[in-house]
Amino acid sequence: MFWKSGNHMRYEKYYFIQNHSISQQEMKTMIKDYIDQNKIMEDAENNGADYIALNFMIADFKFPIYFEENKNYFKMDDYVTHYVKSNRIALYTYSFETEEEDIKIYQK
Q1: pLDDT tens digit sequence for 8-31
Q2: Would you say 77 and 68 are in contact if contact means Cβ atoms under 8 Å apart?
Q3: Per-residue pLDDT tens over the stretch 45-77
Q4: Which residues have C-beta within 8 Å of that of residue 78, sequence separation ≥ 6?
C-alpha cells in the first residue's frame, strides 16, 4: 500500500509469519531474503516511495477472521491498529533519502 505523508510517499505492507520460533538473526536473514527475492526495494522505488515500512506479525486466533475496518476517519478504533501494536514481531524500515535501513525484532 502506498500513501502520502506530508511531502513523502510511504510504501507499507503487513505480513503474517507462520514460523516465528526462530532466533533474531534468523528472522533478520529471513526478512532480508524475502525483500531481495520479491524485489520489494525495486517495487517501492519504481512507485516513487521515499520510505518503506514492512510489518511482520504473528497470528492471533482471538482476532476476528472476517472484520471490517472502521470507515469513520475521525474514530480510528479498528482492529488492525490494535493488532499491529500487540502482534507485530518484526519491523523493517528503509529510507531512500538517507539510505538508512533498520530491522527491529520484538520479543513475544
Answers
A1: 888 989 888 876 677 889 889 999
A2: no
A3: 998 899 999 999 887 676 665 555 556 655 555
A4: 67, 69, 70
The full DSSP string for 40-62 is HHHHHHHTT-SEEEEEEE---TT
| Helical residues (DSSP H) of 1-108, grouped into ranges | 24-37, 40-46, 79-87
Of residues 97, 102, 81, the one with CA closest to residue 31: 102
Residue 70 in grid coordinates: 472502521
**Cross-sheet strand order for the sheet of 51-57:** 2-5, 8-16, 51-57, 88-95, 100-105
Q: How many helices (H) and strands (E) does the chain have?
A: 3, 5
**pLDDT tens figures, 73-107:** 555 555 556 566 667 789 999 999 999 999 999 86
pLDDT at 46: 92
Q: What cell numbers appear for 50 in the block?
A: 521515499
